[in-house]
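Morning!

This is the sequence you dropped in the shared folder:
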Amino acid sequence: MTWDYNEDPRLVLGNLHGFLLYLLEANASDFFPDDATLRAYYIDTRISTRVGGLEIFRLYNISVAARTVKGPGPTFESVVVRTHGEG
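The structure's back. Tokens below.
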């Protein structure tokens, strides 16, 4: 997964420490239930990562937030993706 990030100093509350990637998995009916577990992954300052351990043919809602010493900022626009089969 790759995302864009504009490090315009006017938009950053302190130095960039990395990103938080949020991942929400849909159920077998492609529905995102209210009690679904939201997983968060800490990522360094790279603007890409590989996420493992996902279910095949499953729908995921993914969003990313920059984080500074003040904590995570607002999330970027989320995307909904479907994983493929194995391989």
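Headline: The chain has one domain: 9-82.

More detail when I'm at my desk.
O.
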